[in-house]
Amino acid sequence: MGITVFDQEHQRLATLMGQVHATLLEKHDRALALTLIESLIQETRAHFDHEERVMEELGFHEREAHAAEHATLIQEAQVQLQMFRSGTFSALAMPNFLKAWLIPHMQVTDRKYAACLRRHGFR
Ligand SMILES: [Fe+2]
Ligand SMILES: [Fe+2]
Hints:
By secondary structure, this protein is mainly α.
C-alpha cells in the first residue's frame, strides 16, 4: 500500500500465514500450526488496533466502516480457529481460508486510507 510501517506489518502477517501453510501441508504438524494461528490472530489484532488508532488520529472519514470490517475478520478467524481446534477442519481447509481471509482486506480496504496517510506525511 506504500506506507512503510503498515507494509511491514502486512508482510509479517503474510509470513505467518505462509508458515501456517507450510506447517500443515509439509510438516503435517497440527499442534505447531495451532500455535502459529493463535499468534497470527493476536498479531492481526495488534495491527488492526494500530491502523484504527492512526485513522482516528487523522479523522479518516471511513474509519468506522474500516474498523467494522476488522471486527468481522477477527470474528471469522476465531470461528475457523475453533473448528480447527475441534478437528472438524482438514489440513487444507485452514490455508485455503487464510488465503481468502486477510489479503482482500489489505488489497482493497487498506488502500483506501493510504492516500489520506500520505497527505499527513506518512511514507
Ligand atoms: Fe492492514
Ligand atoms: Fe485494515
